[in-house]
Structures are given as structure tokens and as C-alpha cells.
Amino acid sequence: MWADTPGLVALAHSEVRGPAVGARFGPSVGYTDPAAGMVAGAVRTVLSDVGDLGDGEGVGVLTISATATSASLTALASDAGRGRLSPSRVAGAAPGSMAGLLCMVFGLRGPSLVITGAPGDVRPVAAVLARSWLAECCHVVLVCEHEAGREEHAVRVTAVERSC
């Protein structure tokens, strides 16, 4: 789908389906939302396929999800009812952590953004942003799409660059 987008070339792609379960990225990251962890797993595969991206400078992250970190936000609401909140869980539940986690874990230092909406609906917006970032400040953009179903989640990650 991103390979057919005018002005962009797909470098690598990964798709993952299954239940969203938490992932561990070391003590410096703290709590990770299950859906964000699933996206990070797919990004790891794409980065491995793309190869050397240097120090992460100029690698942008666009994440698209209608539900983002809603599972963690729901859990926080339950915790708040008991009168206690863990600061690391609050940070990990922020919708922006779906993109921010990728920057922290993989050392990416380009722009990052979470677009809330169904991937099929907001893909044109993401394409305009990716082309703009590639023209101005990035050499690669990771486009991460997340969809939550009743039984499983679907994640698609594509690394794109500007076509000549």
C-alpha cells in the first residue's frame, strides 16, 4: 500500500497480527503500553531489513491508530479509582508514547507524531506528512499503522524514502 503512494518508495515492510502483550525494553523505558510494544516489535524487524540508518538523525516516525494506548488509559482509570497512579504507567499510557517509545528504544531523532484515526481514513494525511518530512528534514520515515480488533491487533510498519 505505501509502495503505491506517489512520491514515496517503500524500503522495508513488516506486518504482525495477534494479541497485544507488553514488551520489555529495559529499565530506562519503564512501563510500555501493549499496543505500543507490538508496534516496536514490528519496527525492530523493519529496521533490521533496512540496515544502517546511522545515528537515527533524520529518521521520522508517523504512527496511525484509532485506539492508540486506550488499553493503558482504561487501566489507569481503574487505578485512579483506587487512589494511586504509577508515574511510569501514566507516561506509558500517553497516546504519543506509541511514537515516542520507538524514538527512545531505537534512538530515532527525527520528527515523530501519532495520528489518531483509522489507518485507511488518515493514510492520505500521513502520506502528505511523510513527503513533507522527506523533503525537509528526514531521509527515512517509518509509517506505523495499528488497528485493534476484538480478538487481535494488526500492525503494519513500512520504512519509506523519497522517490526520485
Describe this structure in words.
- By secondary structure, the protein is α/β, with parallel strands linked by helices.
- It has a single domain (8-162), classed as Thiolase/Chalcone synthase (Peroxisomal Thiolase, Chain A, domain 1, 3-Layer(aba) Sandwich).
- 39% of the residues lie in helices and 26% in strands.
- The protein contains five helices and five strands, in the order E-H-E-H-H-H-E-H-E-E.
- It has helices spanning 34-50, 70-81, 87-93, 97-106, 119-136; strands at 8-18, 59-65, 112-116, 140-148, 153-162.
- Strand 4 (140-148) and strand 5 form a beta hairpin.
- Helix 1 (34-50) crosses helix 4 (97-106) and helix 2 packs antiparallel against helix 3.
- The radius of gyration is 16 Å and the shape is globular.
Please name the defining characteristics of this protein.
single chain; 164 residues; alpha/beta; Peroxisomal Thiolase, Chain A, domain 1; 5-stranded mixed β-sheet; 5 helices; 5 strands; 39% helix
